[in-house]
Fold each of these.
Amino acid sequence: MKSKALIELLSDGKIHSGESLAAKLGVSRTAIWKQIRRAMGEGAEIVTIRGRGYRLVSRIDLLDCASVLAEISSDYKKQIELTVLEEVDSTNAEVVRQFSAGSVGFPVVIADCQTSGRGRRGRVWQSPRGENLYLSMGLTFHGGFGVLDGLSLVLGVAVVNALERLGMSEVGLKWPNDIFHRDGKLGGILVELQGELEEGVVQVVAGIGLNVHMSQAEGVGQPWSSLAKACPGVDWSRNQIGGAIIEAVLEAVSVFSDLGFRDFKDPWQRRDIFNEKLVRARGGEVEGVGCGIDDAGNYLVRTADGIIPVRAGEISLRVTQ
Ligand code: BTN
């Protein structure tokens, strides 16, 4: 948001005169008026109170690097390089650029909006300004691509852990890692593998999109939810959620790097939204009852021909006629 300094001053919800805002920001009253107009054009709800000044009607959840870092414990904070942007094509693409520029450690990028947000399977990820969390983390693993089996599911477990620590309940996972609340998709994770750097060193970009304040959406082709819809009483802060997710992902990745997928199988299965439900996979070629995952993280479907592991593609609920 271009008028961020102005919004920060107004964010206490009190009335501020044009004169006091101008003095605090070191600009003219006319410049303040123009900034108010621009902020309103960007979606801020500001009312003018005649003879007294301006007031922000609803709180704006601004992103702020220091506030995200304040949520992360010092050991993990040391390991990351956090960038918070007003706008970017895709936070995943930005992490790739940072990796290419030689970033070491864990580059992490959060943006207020994305102009080319990417979803799984080539889909577009709607990324309106100021509404949701768009967060990508660059992760480095040793041992070649083989050590990444199950990583995608581990990231799903980490995001659910973070949301539960923030007080959410009834958060589920749809294989491999869609985040669900009741029947609506709350978020998704796009895992993109970079090449092998040197013998056995692989870089991965984990992009997490989580609906936070969104109350309406165009072009989302499936039932969706947001934290605000799921828990309307909570004053959700994207800085706090971002910090909690970064911490939970780093925690999970550290266990995964040491011990592999083993410790994540049960935590994933506890959140399986398709457990004991009629499902279909491989475009309808496999139909049966969802029964969790195997040791490698493949989804298991109990069919008339036995249990079939599904390694790729989508699992969906089977609609009975
Ligand atoms: C999905 O299709 O379910 C995965 C969506 C992943 C979206 C996130 S938003 C942050 C990161 N940047 C992107 O362009 N995509 C991921």
Amino acid sequence: MKIIKSLIALTLVITLAACSTGSKVTKTDVLVIGGGGAGLVASVTAAEAGKNVILVEKMAAVGGNTIISATGITASDTYLHTEAGIPFTKEDHFKRTMETGKNLANPELVNILVNSSADAVQWLADLGLKLKVRSDKEPFWLVPVEGHYGSQFVGVILNKANEFKNLEIRTSSKALELLVEDGKVVGALIEGPEGQYEIKAKSVVLATGGLNNNPEMIAEYNAKYANANTEMTTAGATGDGIIMALAVNANLIDMEYFQMRPLSINGDWYNESIVNTEDVSGILVNFQGQRFVNETLAPKALASEILKTPEHSAYAVFDQRVAETPAGKKFVEKGKAFTANTIAELAVLMSIDAAVLEKTINDYNEGVDPFERTVLGQVIQAPYYAVITKPSNHYTMGGIQVDANAQVIDKQGNPIEGLYAAGEVIGGLYGDGRVAGNNTLDDVVFGKIAGSNAAK
Ligand code: ADP
């Protein structure tokens, strides 16, 4: 009798456990988590290899931060460079990447990125993405022949993905944790529109992007950027992949490095020339109308100082001459500037004591600078402008450690069986500085490496 009772109890426990995680289990060959550039590329690659692939994307649509990529891709020795007669060699590309990252990037991974870039661009061209070399001054940039870069980049890869019957994209489906059996990653627990369930897979690719939309996590890895704003990110970049990877003993590298933009507003960032150029530049003031920082600090240090203010933001105040520069013009339009013909009127619009702001501007115009700024401008030509700026993270440069196979490395230095990663979630390609445009190149190059190895 006792045995029967125990059996009934055990069955009940098993049933309840099955219900709590949803009793369905879906099986596939390759599970890709995250539907930005890297996840889409990895999915297409694994599907091309003939495997059954499920891509889960937690948002209602794929695209991630990749879809808001503004400019283009960086690549070297491509057919476009040959056609344009404008060289940008692999050596140039490697050097630029290493130097920008203060030589802290992993040269092995950077070499892979650089050496695969021409093929990556050819692949994108074959999918229908029309690019050109931006100019002989910026030969590293390949930009769209027309239109917005990120949406076209995602568009052509998504079109390709939709061709495969063996590739299923599940949106509004969030991976909660990785499943591990005998030290091997074998799938993930998913929260979908109909509840939780498991997807069991032979391999998993993590492509969940960065943590731009998770200020608490940013602060955890670099206290200087505590209270970062989230002007420059889509909603999904909350570091889920980092948390899931840590739970299976993955190693993280370079996590303290973030690409902070001091002058960011409404999804875009602006050149610091608005507040740090000789003669014509403006200043930053706090919400009491006082200067509080040397505006010519390096961007990341400047961002950190602005974040220390109670509002974690500041006013950029400048005159008509700055408003006429290309950066100034865009800043005024996007930032919904306050504009007035006198500093006193401007102060009223900013809800700041006019006498305080007038004194701040007068002192600055007379070269009084308690912040050791050596490059001083003046704010003298009406109309005057004030725009609220909110320092934000533009790119998460650290992340999960991977090897040349895009396989995740654990804290003991060993590859984790069944787990691959690509895109912004990986570390090692940047160190302390990002060559703009290497990120969507990473999506293609490491997305392909991850996808093809996961398909083996
Ligand atoms: P990358 O350039 O590396 O592809 P993106 O930011 O473009 O980075 O894409 C990452 C994608 O991963 C985003 O669309 C994001 O919503 C998605 N994502 C993040 N966390 C999860 C999760 N836990 N489950 C499913 N998708 C996720």
